[in-house]
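re: that chain from earlier
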Amino acid sequence: MNDDVRIPALCPLKVDDFAIVYTEWGLRISRVIAIYSKGGGKNGKHAAVDKADVIAGVSYLGVQIYQQHFHRHFRSIPDATSVFQCNHFAFLPSTALFCLLSSKPNLTHSGLELAPADLTDFDILSTALPQLAEAAKLFRKRTSRNGATQRDAEGDF
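^ sequence. v structure.
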């Protein structure tokens, strides 16, 4: 079992799982819509897969983003897309995923409601936002051939 992100060997990460993720907009809850992984070999192509046994094997996750509204309630239309009144979707690198939720949240007409145990995990991670932002910044850096680091050209997380 990969305890770090709660992906048990018998229950891999799959579409429709819910997770805590860090994005450029802050800490959020996400619903996995697509999982992309690089195929085998040096010139392997990225392709959608049904499941991932190990998070390190995932290139990107297609997710729907939910923003905390009040206590255990998370809304499906976050601030980033509220002007357009639409849901928020993103492609995130596997490094943005912190952990899967321990239980499936209750879906409501305006978003979702977390279980108390999952809210505790979310609150603990929320207290470390400055450190999470610094870690995300370090993950975006690339190492050049001489060992020096440079910022990712895309600049987004």
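The mean pLDDT is 84.
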